[in-house]
Design brief:
By secondary structure, this protein is of the alpha/beta class. The protein has four domains: 14-295, Aldolase class I (TIM Barrel, Alpha-Beta Barrel); 304-334, no CATH class; 338-398; 400-514, Alpha-isopropylmalate synthase LeuA, regulatory domain (Double Stranded RNA Binding Domain, 2-Layer Sandwich). It has 18 helices and 14 strands. Strands 1-2-3-4-5-6-7-8 form an eight-stranded parallel barrel, surrounded by eight helices. The chain binds 3-methyl-2-oxobutanoic acid (KIV) and zinc ion (ZN). Residues 25, 110, 150, 152, 178, 180, 182, 213, 215 line the site of 3-methyl-2-oxobutanoic acid.
């Protein structure tokens, strides 16, 4: 027998499926939650990157998750859209409903198989777990031909029981078998042996795709995933920038570039367009407010920067001396002066297209152009990164109830600083003022005067987007109210304006979250 996958048909022996879980496992990490609108923007970037499967969320987890998965399934074409579900029938049905509009879909259901998880968490016997696997996969197959089954904590599961569980799932109709290292405990040698053992021992193993899903608690997620591929896995799961529970998941960009750079060792075929990597990485940072560290492989600011004189000299003579892959192959272009204050609308639109913004509505282009003109008056050199920050923010602002209009602030080192802010709330301009310890604090007090609220400020972080004294500052603000946590981002050459924009962005998200909770009827919550 050989694999004839419902969504991928007959695959070449060395084809590897890239399963992206940025919007599910990635989004579960503290501070990384995204609104439906943000998930849709990220999903579009993942589709352009060419991931094969996109896990859009966990529909039974919350009405919000359901809504996001449903929206992605309704509008994102290309990748298979997957939803995660526990083994409970209600979860599986909810997942099936959420992914229904997708042309290509997958139900991903899981249950823990390690002794520790079965006894301590599930409080189930191994036989009960086996029965649940049979029941859950059989039910999932009623809704989708493509069913992935995961053995949670597989890497710490007794090998004989793992084989029994996998065999049960295959017999019940699973088409992909995922064996996660849920707690990031395994090593490349051990993980490779687990895959080799199961694939050799389980009847029907040659009819399904095996998948690796690794967490990075010991910094081994990429190494472990590669080891699984060498033992016969043909799908790996990961997230952009390696985000995910605790220390994160396998970083997709690293896996892709290992295979592209070392085909002599990892000779696998991928559908991904690696030149889209940086764009996806940056969009994720802009949405979540968390930049990757400068030395992060592939997507860090320093990943292709050569500081030491001897290195610079070598690279100028022949880039191969210190570069094992080209910056362009992952989407880096030399930061250059792109547009100036005399650039017109047509040049701006051209630039947006080169940066990959091909589907922005006209109103978002107009608004971004207006902000670009303001920026060009204040900032001498405008880089691609400036334009990207501006457009990403404008897209987020477009439908916001509260919009930043203007701000004036004065800092006094020997007394309270002052700020006066004008916001447009539901189309009506309102002005407020505030005093505080520093101009940023004063601006936040002024925002509270214009739009009273009780949310607590939990996080405040500022980074420079580009270099130079006139660089734009990107600010992240986290607000919390009644257990609802939201992050907002803002950027501007003026730090106080940047912080105020971020605060307003977070406030808009909070208001949207509040409204969603009120709108949801009890029937929807318990359906
Ligand atoms: O880490 C894990 O085990 C998971 C499963 C739900 C696939 O994320
Ligand atoms: Zn996981």
């Amino acid at each position: 027998m050989s694999i004839n996958h419902p969504n991928f048909g007959k695959m070449a022996d060395n084809q590897v499926i890239v399963f992206d879980t940025t919007l599910r496992d990635g989004e579960q990490a503290p501070g990384f939650s995204m609104t439906t609108d943000e998930k849709l923007r990220m999903a579009a970037a993942l589709a352009s990157l060419g991931v094969d499967v996109m896990e859009a969320g966990f529909p039974a987890a919350s009405p919000n998750d359901f809504e996001s998965v449903h929206a992605i399934a309704s509008s994102i074409a290309g990748p298979v859209i997957a939803g995660l579900s526990r083994a409970a029938p209600g979860d599986i049905e909810r997942c099936a409903e959420a992914i229904k509009p997708a042309k290509r879909k997958r139900i991903h259901t899981f249950i823990a198989t390690s002794e520790l998880h079965m006894a301590a968490k599930l409080r189930m016997t191994p036989d009960q777990v086996i029965d649940t696997i049979r029941g859950s996969v059989t039910l999932a197959r009623k809704y989708s031909d493509d069913v992935e089954w995961s053995a949670e904590d597989a890497a710490r599961t007794d090998p004989d029981f793992l084989c029994r569980a996998v065999e049960t799932a295959i017999k019940a109709g699973a088409t992909t078998i995922n064996m996660p290292d849920t707690v990031g405990y395994t090593t490349p040698g051990d993980y490779a042996r687990i895959f080799a053992d199961v694939i050799a021992r389980v009847p029907g193993a040659d009819t399904v795709i095996f998948s690796a899903h690794c967490h990075n608690d010991l910094g081994l997620a990429v190494a472990n995933s590669l080891a699984a591929l060498q033992s016969g896995a043909r799908q790996f799961e990961g997230a952009i920038n390696g985000i995910g529970e605790r220390a994160g998941n396998t970083a997709i960009e690293e896996m892709v570039m290992v295979m592209r750079t070392r085909p002599d060792v990892y000779n696998y075929r991928l559908n991904v367009d690696s030149r889209q990597i940086l764009k996806a990485s940056k969009l994720l940072s802009a949405i979540t407010g968390f930049d990757v560290q400068p030395n992060k492989a592939i997507v860090g600011r320093n990943a292709f920067a050569h500081e030491a004189g001897i290195h610079q000299d070598g690279v100028l003579k022949n880039a191969l001396t210190y570069e094992i892959m080209t910056p362009e192959s992952v989407g880096w272009s030399k930061s250059s002066l792109v547009l100036g204050k005399h650039s017109g609308r047509a040049a701006f639109r051209d630039k947006l297209v080169t940066l990959g913004y091909t589907e922005l509505p006209q109103v978002a282009i107009d608004e971004a152009f207006a902000r670009f003109k303001e920026l060009a008056d204040r900032k001498k050199t405008i880089y691609d990164e400036d334009i990207e920050a501006l457009v990403d923010e404008t897209a987020a602002d477009a439908q916001a109830r509260i919009q930043f209009v203007s701000l004036s602030a004065a800092s006094h080192s020997d007394g309270k600083s002052e700020a006066r802010i004008t916001l447009s709330v539901d189309g009506v301009e309102k002005t407020g003022s505030g005093k505080g310890d520093g101009a940023v604090h004063a601006a936040f007090v002024a925002i509270r005067e214009v739009f009273p609220h009780e949310a607590a400020l939990n996080l405040f972080a500022i980074n420079a987007i580009t270099e130079g004294a006139d660089a734009q500052a990107r600010t992240t603000v986290r607000l919390e109210e009644d257990g609802r946590i939201v992050d907002g981002q803002g950027s501007d050459t003026d730090t106080v304006v940047s912080a105020s924009r971020a605060y307003v962005h977070a406030l808009n998200k909070l208001v949207a979250k509040r409204e969603r909770t009120v709108q949801l009827s009890p029937a929807f919550l318990t359906a």
